[in-house]
Each structure stands twice: as structure tokens, then as C-alpha cells.
Specification:
CATH architecture of the largest domain in chain A: 2-Layer Sandwich
Radius of gyration of chain A: 25 Å
Oligomer: homodimer
Helix content of chain A: 25-40%
Strand content of chain A: 25-35%
Largest interface: A-B, 57 and 57 residues
CATH superfamily of the largest domain in chain A: Bira Bifunctional Protein, Domain 2
Largest sheet of chain A: 11 strands, mixed
Structural class of chain A: alpha+beta
CATH class of the largest domain in chain A: Alpha Beta
Chain lengths: 476, 476
């Protein structure tokens, strides 16, 4: 029953898959490229959803739901959009036993269907800004898939907003980017770099794509969330106009933004260790597991009342479970919860009871301490806060230690091909240099910092002048 | 801007559509048969979801997520299942620009994909019972669609459980049926009839289908929720077995159950009036709207502080909003919230302020009362409870007044074709008699009561002996 998890050092990629499967986050499905999100993985998604949903609503957005099926012609209305998404489309050709007059694609993202509705709903400046969010499944035909990171179907949230001016749309896109940064850092305990994407990396149909990027333990980048300023591209494609205060008709300015179930993959790769998952307490479905320990009926009589007492002290404030399974050995129980990344374990055995104490064990650094019963609620709260902070600090250290400035392309290549990390280098801005880097090193331009110190320099590839440094890295 | 809503008496069907559109619950989409659920309609769905999700989790079920795309061959594995669903399937034939080797269908329900996973996860009796719930979108190709009631795509929850014995599965199916009854009655304020479906009406693949049926104001039945005892049908089709305590391998026994966004249609048709929607307070996204009234800056100076005070008194305990729009007339504002079915309106004008009071107005019976400010929180709580109860009582009265016992088929036909309602009549149990009724009257067999008084009688159609009465009605 117990399968081993590969060591990160030996086989990072197998380690990742082992952890996802062993912690029962997800499973392969019989459908190529599609996964099943198992209850424990889905509980993490519910924690992410619950938090982000509150944050999104606080920006003034309202949830709604738009059709999964989109007429193929809609996808074609925005030139860049169709170019970007055409290769990834799944197409419904038959419905109710008949060939459809027009094929329908499964939404690879919902701009097109949403803008066709915005055209109907937006009349005047009084209808603006309009902020809509949708929690939905998305289909993108992927050739090489990996659980959570790249699957044909995934779950996400997609925000879509329409504004009267370019400035407002820009402000919205940046505000949301900041919301994602807050979520990544304060909830996921993953420090991120905020920045703009290059032309090559931006969303198909956007004027500007912003993103937050985190560093995984293998020093590769993972895009945690993205926020697009769409300009008037979709407004023009779907003729979404509004009447200004002065009575003119103008196209709206819009944004879209999203995060997906790949965040669960990010949590695994940012914090996990060779035993398995380590979850930040603020997103852990189970924050505390209580394991009562007894060998005899006499012990049980002592241990059980204390277990109930501790459960009672904690259950209002923390998400907790009591492991009463009698089919598993103690060691197996401990391992089960460690593998699942539960931040704190409380052991209660006859000796603990005789001391009126319980043993608290941290998942992240393995620290243990016998804590008097009356201090448990306070200590649990403090320890969970401390775990949240120290996971962030550990990630922050990783990011700092593996972000390098270099001005030499040979050094750049050496770093990327060797230890990996974020390379903070001068780039002239030309797509040709960007492509060359990608072809030669597999590193992509991850982020053009939002407020970088202006620093004159020379492009690491071609030597032409560059006004600022940008981040390159290999990425998921 | 203000469109009229048809009167229920004049054109029930147009009234329904008008209310759905005017209350901004949903809108037509450019995709045939698919609707857009607008923010206000989605907020009702969120209220339904939030409540049911807690109830479902309390039964021991955990949420998970399974693929939308199902291999066509899977649907064919259970004979009755494919027969039932084949005519409604949407089929993906192309992905990533290529013809697929095997077509994929969009889930019309998830038994097949879920049982293929259960086969992998269930090993022994220790893994049972297994209770899984999924919130998801569903696609069934429908020819004649109506907003919320019958759409090609809809949202639902589907529970799937596996058990060691037939008895346990039966108990589960009944427990869930009871959960749906509680939800319908206590939350939706819709009294329901609990019963079993006939062979003709049961779920394709079930041994027994149970359902709760409510009566709409046009005296037609609407199935609010259904719960199926699937026996070992899917377990055998997907070879889902477990090892018993004694070491034998046996197929599991299973159930599935669900409710969908059609519940929103039920709320409209059970409670609405000629002005628009009337929402039961426990599911209303906005329970209280405060409308401050002022004609001058001086008035505003008096009214606004009191509005803020009342908001402060209520905001912790109730879902409320303050209507500060200055682009609408007062009458238009009132109508807007009435149309949307907000249970309580609080008007605060200069005269109210001078009396240190506010005017409370009920949506359901139009009652108004000037209430001293200090009494507002208590009164609002009492009135909301009262509205919830009186909506239920009104529905209960409708159900009782339009449920008829008759022993004559000519009277049966007259009732069904005339006023409508639930006809509680003797039926011999033969599909032929059931079909005859349906063909001649369009009424279907809605419910075979769970614990009916045994009453010897004669089938209303053929005159053969019948041991009990069953419910026939026209239905959505």
C-alpha cells in the first residue's frame, strides 16, 4: 500500500508526480490529458477558491456563468486570438445525433462569448465599469500533459472587465495583478516577481499581459496568475460600445485575468520535501491532525477524554481532524498525514495524559514540543502562523539565492543549463534576441519588471543598448 | 428601459420568461439552447450551492472533480444508460486540429467516468462507503429549451456513492432524498411530494429513482431533486468490486443524486407574482434593500446619517444593499428591487428621520409599517422569518387545493386539461396504462408515494385492481 516517493535530487519530475499521486491530490483519468481532482486536492482548490472569491468580490466583480460551447466563428473574430488558440481547440461537430451547422468549440477562455454579451448589456457610461468573474472548466488540447501543470481540462477563474477609458482598464489590470501577488505571497507563501510579458509571451489578443511568477524548488519559474490589458481589441471585434456623457459612442476598454488549478502544482513544487507535500496553513484543508495513541483499553480510557477535550478546544478556530483509524499502524498514520502536508500533528498518548500535556509536531521543520493542555490553543495558533511565515521565508531565500545578474551570455547559458534560476539580464527588446535565447537555452523571458531601476546596459545577446534588466528562466 | 412583464393569467409562459429576463437572472446566448446566467441569477445559485454544499458534506460526502470529456465507449457500457442518453449527446470529434481516434462525449451525467475511477480506488470493505460529490456543468442536447428549466448546458451537483450492501445503498438514496426535501421546504419554501418513479420515468441505469416534486403556480409539477439507487448496474458495467471482511470479492452497490440550476426556475414559478420575482429570504442574495430618500441637500444631511446608522445595525446579520443611484427615480428604484424579489425594503426619508423611524415594506404581501430605529434589527429578523414561513404556507395551500383524488378517468382528463394540478389516483402498475394517460392527457406519472396508505382500488385507466394511489400531473 505504501509507495515510495522519489527524492527531489534524484528525479524531480518523478518526485512531483509521486507527491501528487501519493498525497491523493489527483489521479490520471481514462481520457488522454485529463485528470481527476481527488477530494484532498479539490479541498485545496476550495480553499483557494474561497479566499480568491472574497478578494475578487471586494474589487467589485460579480460572478456569472457563460456557455462552455462557443461558435467557431466567434473565436475567429479577433485576429491574434484565433492565431493563439486555434491549435488548442476541441471541436464539437455533432449534437443530438446530428451534424451541427456550425461547429462549436469548447471554451479555451471566454473573451469571445463574454464580449458578445457585453455588446448587449453595455449601453452607456452608466453601465461602466462592468466587472464579471467566472469560475469554470477550460479545455485546451495539450500534447504533453502533467497533472495540474498542463492538462487538457482545468478549472480556473476568469475575470472580464469593461471600462470607459484606457487609464481605468490599465489601473484595473494592475490592481488585479497586485491582488494575485497578495494571494501568492500571503496565502500560498510563494514570493513572486511582478512584471510585464514580452510580445512573444503575451496573451493572444491582449495589448499588455502582466503576470506574477514564482520560483519552484528546481529553480524553474511558474506563472501564478496573469492579468491582461486588452485595450479595445475585443471591444472592436465584437462591437462593444457605450454612449459617453457627452453623447458620443465609443468602444469600451477592457481587461481579463485568471488563475487556475495549476496553483495546486505550484504549492507542491514550492514547498514539498522528500516525504511529500507541505501545505501553508492558510490553505491547508486540514491544519491540525490529532492522533490519539493507546495500546490497551486502560490507555484508551485515559487518552480518549483528553483527545475529545483538545478537539473541543481547537475545533472552532482551526480546521482539524482526529485520526481514529484502527486499521493502520501509528507510523503509517504519521506518514499518511506528513505525505499530505498537514502543518501540525498533535500526539496524545498515556504519558502525555499523565503530564496533562500533548506533543505538538511541525510538518515543515520536524520540531516537537510537549505543550501543557491549557496552552494548546495559543500554541497551535502561534505555530501555524510561524509555519506560514517560515514557508514564505524559505521560498524567499530560494528566490534570492537563485536570482543572478550577469552581463555575459556564456555565463547566462552556464547558469541556465546548470543550476537554473532567474537570470536578471539586459535585453535590447528585440524578438530575435528573445527567440535566440529560447532556442539555445530553453529559457524564456518571464518578466519585464514594472518599476525597474533604469540601468543603461548592453543586450546580453546582441550587445545593443538596453535601458533595463529583465528576467529569463526556464518555466513550467 | 422598463419592459413590461406579462400577467400570469394572460400568458404564463411569457410571464416566466419576462421575469427571468427582467430580474436579470439569465439571458439568451448566441449558442442555441445555452443560456448566460447573469450575476443576480448566479448569486441565487451561490446561495443554493453554499447551503447544499454544507448539507452534502454533513452526509460524509467529499467534493471532487472528474473530466468533462468521456470516451464514447464508456457511455455504451451500461445498456439502459446509453439508450437513455444517446439521443442527447454532444460529441467532440476533433482536438488540436486532428480527428480523434475515439470520439469524446460531453458529460450528460458522470456515472461512467466516476465508476471507471471507483474501480481503481475501491479495494476492500475498508474503502466503503465512498461518497463523492461534484459541482459541474452538464451538456444534454435539447430540442426545445427554456431558460433554467431545460437548457443544453446547465450547472448541477451530482453525488455518487458506493456501499458494501444493497441496504446501505438504499438507505443512502433515501437519506439524500430527505435532504432534498428539507432543502426544498426549509430553504426554497416549496413543499414537495416524496416518491418513487415508475419504470418509464426512472433514470437510465437505475434500479429505483426517487424524487421530490413541487407544484408550480400553474399547477404543473417540477422535479426539484432526484436520488437513484443504482443497484449493481454500474458496478458490474465497470467491474467495481471490493474484498469483503471474509475475503470474497463482490460488486459494490451504489447511488447517484443531483439537483441543478433548474431550481432557480422553480423559485420563479413557485413564488413570483405579476410584478416579478419573490425570493424566500433564506436564499435571497439581497435580503434587505435600504432606499434613502431626499429632495434637497438639507434633506440629504438628515437622511444619510440615519441610512448609515441603519446599515450599521443590520449589516452583520443580514445580506443588504443601499440604493444610492442618482440616475433613477424613486418609483423606478422601488420597482427594480420588487422585480428582483428582494424580501424587504426599508425607506428612509426626511419625515421618517424626524420621527426617528424608517418605513419597512414587505415584498410578498405589500405590508408597510413605520418602525422606530431601535427596533429595526429585531423587526427585520422577525419579518424575514415571517416571509419565509408565509411563502411556504402559500405554496402549501396551492398544493393542497390542487391535489385531487378521483376514481373516474373522464374527471381526471377534465381536471388535467382544465385547471391542472396533481391527480392522486389508482394505477394498476402497467406501463401501458401509464403511456395511455400520457398520450391522451400529457400528464405523466410523477410519484409513487413512499409510505402510502394501502387502499384497495381500481386502475383509473383499465379498471384492474390497484393497491395504492399515485400522483399524475403535467410537468416541466
Amino acid at each position: 500500500m505504501v509507495h515510495e516517493i522519489a527524492k527531489r535530487e534524484d528525479d524531480w519530475s518523478r518526485w512531483y508526480t509521486d507527491v501528487v499521486l501519493q498525497a491523493e491530490l489527483a489521479d490520471y483519468s481514462p481520457v488522454k490529458g485529463c485528470m481527476v481532482i481527488r477530494p484532498y486536492g479539490y479541498a485545496i482548490w476550495e480553499a483557494i477558491q474561497g479566499t480568491l472569491d472574497r478578494m475578487i468580490k471586494a474589487t467589485g466583480a460579480q460572478n456569472a456563468y457563460f456557455p462552455l460551447l462557443i461558435p467557431e466563428s466567434y473565436i475567429r473574430k479577433e485576429a491574434e486570438h484565433v492565431e493563439g488558440f486555434a491549435p488548442e481547440l476541441a471541436v464539437v461537430t455533432h449534437g443530438g445525433g446530428k451534424l451541427l451547422e456550425e461547429p462549436l468549440v469548447l471554451r479555451p477562455t471566454s473573451e469571445t462569448i463574454i464580449y458578445s454579451m457585453f455588446a448587449k448589456w453595455i449601453m452607456s457610461y452608466r453601465d461602466l465599469p462592468l466587472r464579471i468573474n467566472q469560475w469554470a472548466n477550460i479545455i485546451r488540447w495539450e500534447m504533453r500533459t502533467r497533472l495540474f501543470l498542463r492538462t487538457t481540462e482545468f478549472l480556473w477563474q476568469e475575470g472580464h472587465t469593461a471600462h470607459a477609458t484606457h487609464e481605468e482598464a490599465e489601473e484595473e489590470a494592475r490592481k488585479i495583478l497586485d491582488m494575485y501577488r497578495t494571494f501568492a505571497e500571503d496565502w500560498m507563501a510563494i514570493p513572486v516577481i511582478q512584471g510585464r510579458k514580452s510580445e512573444a509571451e503575451k496573451f493572444a489578443g491582449a495589448d499588455v499581459t502582466y503576470a506574477v511568477e514564482g520560483m519552484m524548488q528546481d529553480r524553474k519559474a511558474l506563472q501564478v496568475g496573469t492579468s491582461h490589458n486588452l485595450g479595445q481589441n475585443f471591444a472592436k471585434a465584437f462591437d462593444v460600445t457605450y454612449q459617453t456623457r457627452e453623447g458620443r459612442r465609443e468602444h469600451v476598454w477592457s481587461t481579463s485575468w485568471g488563475v487556475s488549478t495549476r496553483l495546486i502544482g505550484a504549492l507542491v513544487m514550492a514547498h514539498g520535501d522528500d516525504i511529500g507535500l507541505i501545505l501553508p496553513p492558510r490553505l491547508a484543508p486540514v491544519q491540525v491532525v490529532i492522533v490519539p495513541i493507546w495500546g490497551s483499553d486502560e490507555d484508551y480510557g485515559k487518552v480518549w477524554p483528553v483527545t475529545e477535550k483538545v478537539r473541543g478546544m481547537l475545533s472552532g478556530d482551526f480546521r482539524l481532524t482526529v485520526d481514529t483509524r484502527d486499521t493502520l499502524s501509528l507510523g503509517r498514520k504519521f506518514y499518511d498525514w506528513e505525505r499530505k502536508g498537514v502543518p501540525l500533528r498533535i500526539e496524545i498518548g498515556p504519558k502525555d495524559v499523565s503530564r496533562q500535556a500533548a506533543l505538538l509536531c511541525r510538518r515543515d521543520n520536524k520540531a516537537k514540543e510537549s505543550v501543557p493542555l491549557e496552552n494548546i490553543p495559543l500554541t497551535v495558533g502561534k505555530w501555524l502562523d510561524d509555519i506560514q511565515r517560515s514557508l514564505f521565508a524559505r521560498s524567499q531565500k530560494l528566490l534570492e539565492e537563485h536570482t543572478y545578474r550577469t552581463d555575459r551570455y556564456d555565463e547566462f547559458r552556464e547558469m541556465i543549463e546548470g543550476e537554473g534560476g532567474f537570470l536578471f539580464v539586459h535585453w535590447c527588446g528585440s524578438p530575435a534576441c528573445e527567440t535566440k535565447v529560447q532556442e539555445e537555452t530553453k529559457a524564456t523571458l518571464r518578466s519585464i519588471p514594472l518599476e525597474s531601476e533604469k540601468e543603461e546596459g548592453k543586450c546580453i545577446v546582441c550587445g545593443k543598448p538596453s535601458p533595463e534588466r529583465v528576467y529569463f528562466a526556464k518555466a513550467y
